[in-house]
Amino acid sequence: MKQFKGRVITPGEVTAEAVVTHEGFNTLASLQMALQFGDKEVKCGDQNNKELHGKPLIGKALCLPQTIGSTTGGLVLYCACAMGKNPACLLFSEHIDSLAAAGAVLADVWVDGVTMPVVDCLGEESLAYVKDGMTVTVKADGTVEVE
Amino acid sequence: MLLTKEQQAILDGEKGETLAKVMKTLVMYGEAFEAEKLVPITSSYNHLVTSFGLKVMSPVYDLMQTLLDAGVASGQKFSVDPRPIDKNVPANLLQNLVFNKFMYTKQSFYEDQLEKLGLLNKNAFTCTCYMDEVGNRPKKGDVLSWAESSAVVYANSVLGARCNRNSGILDIMGSIVGYVPYFGLLTDEGRKATWVVRIATTKKPEAQLLGSAIGMKVMEDVPYVIGLDQWIGTELDDAACSYLKDFGAATASNGAVGLYHIDNLTPEAKELGQSLIVEGAKEYVIDDAELERVKANYPVIWKKPDAKAKLCFVGCPHLSLQQLKDWTVNIEAALQANGRKKITVPTVLTAAPTVLEAFGKTEYAARLQAIGVITSYICPLMYMNNPLCKKMPVITSSNKLRTYTSARYYTDAEILSTITGGSAK
User: Fold this and answer.
1) Contact A98, B164 (CB under 8 A)
2) What is the spatial distance between Cα B399 and Cα B412, in angstroms, rounded to a whole number?
3) Which chain A residues touch B106 with a CB distance below 8 Å?
4) Which of A52, A81, A98, A124 should one mutate to test binding to chain B, selecting the residue with the greatest count of B CBs within 10 A?
5) Which one of A92, B150, B175, B392 has the lowest number of neighbouring Cβ atoms within 10 Å?
6) Apex CA A91: angle with CA B165 and CA B146, to 5°?
7) pTM (2 decimals)?
8) Closest listed residue to residue B61, CA positions, set B121, B124, B113
9) Cβ–Cβ gap A98/B24 under 8 Å
10) Residues 6+ apart with CB under 8 A from A42
11) Beta strands A14-20; A135-138: pairing state
């Protein structure tokens, strides 16, 4: 088990199974089709992301460097949260980007009853260590345990 | 974050609970980037990314309704991204059914919301709001609350305005309170380049391919591009602006670039030169082989990779008036060379409604129609954003469209050859 300490963007505690991408996570490309056409597992639709394409994202601990792509990214994330189809948490190895931050904040302020902890600045080592299927526990102070 | 008395009062709820939540959203957003203050928006107009009444986006329309019900409106008029449907664009019975009865059932409801919130006019639907014909063109140094990645990167890089890559919804929240958090691309420090990109190609690089390569490499960093001026000149004329529009859209969609500097060409690079490059900046050299490598690496997700194209989209982001004229001339010439009178693949050129209006007044419009090309104000991305299109072999010269859909990317020259019955695929 390894522990990493990051910065809390939106608070919460959760334990979930990791899905990992070492490339930028394109929120629109990853989520749009799944949300639109009712994919219950919310499988990643981004054809360019070879690590994630086709993998379920709902309820997972999504470990990523940053998000990329269209500026609809934040509102797509917000919609996913409002529809209860979001990842369990977002764990950024780098500083969070503006679109992911917007999505996290919108969900936190405007969606009742949804908790999606978002932690950033976990460091490159966190992304090198965590693998798909590992169990990730996020604590309220931004500590992330991976085993 | 240090707030002014007025900002703090809004946050404390003195102007109502909804406005307090809007302010809280902006403050939390800014705090994620260690912003120390909110600064006034100075542009005449805003630009929003959300133009589509997608049923699945109901939470967005609910939020907009919450704003309207609370009597909140945008302090600025705004333009917005293109409409998702247009009857001029070929669609079969099933597609029309899916578009009108399933996907975009909220379109008129949402457009009504946009009007109430401050839409500039009924024609203000385009991703290229900065075109002269549209009129939402910020001045150098203006602080914006825009979204739409291709418009933000253009405003920052070509016009010298200052705008972060704001998400949809955050865009309008900025202009509701009149402020945006001061961080990132709003600051002098945040506009410095952390990458040097050297162009070492033997010919003018394809704008959307070059942008893709750079976007994938630098992600959200700021690149300073050296050597491109030898191919596109040192003046921001119509051709250079069109090139940079397409280049920038690819950097923003294939990566997350919000600002680039082109040596000897873009305003800040002209003013400050290579002093914009930070010490220890990373370097990326792009030659012909690198562009070929990037292009060859794009996944082909057509069911039959050798299928004949059934539809072609050109104009994501929307074309300029000059680009519409150029495509007309080029298609005519290619048809003549191939001994044909009409295009061989249904082709849609997309542009802003007011650009199309201006184009309609030129002699080129009738010529383009005569060779079978369709023009539309549609957003090709929204058209293709459904499983029916996934099965359809669509080709495009837009790297943004390629990124988000099953459309297959070809260079402008390859597209031209294909749609005119030439030898290229």
Assistant:
1) yes
2) 11
3) none
4) A98
5) B392
6) 10
7) 0.94
8) B113
9) no
10) A31, A34, A35, A56, A57, A58, A80, A85
11) antiparallel
Same fold, B37-186 and B311-419: yes
Report CA-CA distances (Å) from B102 to A95, A134, B61, B95, B336: 38, 38, 16, 10, 42
| Distance (Å, whole) CA B402 – CA B394 | 10
Q: What share of chain B is helix, strand, coil (3-state, %, to 5)?
A: 45, 15, 40
pLDDT of A26 over the 70 cut:
yes
CA distance B59 to B73: 18
Contact assessment for residue A120 and residue A94, using Cβ atoms and an 8 Å cutoff: yes
Q: What does the DSSP assignment read for A49-88?
A: -TTTTT-B-TT-EEEES-EES-TTHHHHHHHHHHTT-S-S
β-sheet with A61-64: strand ranges across = A2-5, A143-146, A135-138, A14-20, A61-64, A89-92, A118-120, A7-10
In angstroms and rounded to an integer, the radius of gyration of the C-alpha atoms of chain B is 22
DSSP B276: G
The size of chain A, in residues, is 147
Cα–Cα distance measured from residue B166 to residue B151, given in angstroms and rounded to the nearest whole number: 11
Q: Name residue A3's beta-bridge partners.
A: A145
CA distances in angstroms from B56 to A35, A85, B67, B102, B407, listed in the order given: 7, 12, 19, 10, 22
Q: Mutating which of B167, B171, B221, B404 best tests the A interface, going by the most A Cβ atoms within 10 A?
A: B167
Say which range, A81-85, B225-229, B250-254, B386-390, has the weakest mean pLDDT.
B386-390
In chain B, where the domains are located? 37-186, 190-296, 311-419
For residue B60, give the nearest of A29, A75, A120 by CB distance. A75
Residue B312, exposed/middle/buried by CB under 10 A (0-12, 13-18, 19+)?
Answer: buried
pLDDT confidence band for B410 (50 / 70 / 90): very high
Under CATH, to which class is B311-419 assigned?
alpha beta
User: What ipTM does the predicted assembly reach?
Assistant: 0.94
Count the neighbouring beta carbons within 10 Å of the beta carbon of residue B297.
11
Per-residue pLDDT of B189-210, as tens digits, reads 999 999 999 999 999 999 999 9
pLDDT digits (tens, 9 = 90+) for A92-147: 999 999 999 999 999 999 999 888 999 999 999 999 999 999 999 999 999 999 99
Interatomic CA distance for residues A32 and A77, integer angstroms: 10
DSSP track, B164-218: --PPTTHHHHHHHHTEEE--GGGSTGGGSEEEEEEE--SSPPPHHHHHHHHHHHH
Q: Is A103 on the interface with B (CB under 8 A)?
A: yes
Distance CA A119, CA B179 (A): 26
Beta bridge partners of A19: A62
The residue written with tokens 């191939």 in the block is B338
Average pLDDT score over chain B: 95
DSSP letter at B243?
H
Q: Using 50, 70 and 90 to split pLDDT, how confident is the model at B424?
A: low
How is domain B37-186 classified at the architecture level of CATH? Answer: 2-Layer Sandwich (3.30)
Q: Which two tokens stand for residue B39?
A: 């600064």
Judge: A109–B28 Cβ closer than 8 Å, yes or no: yes
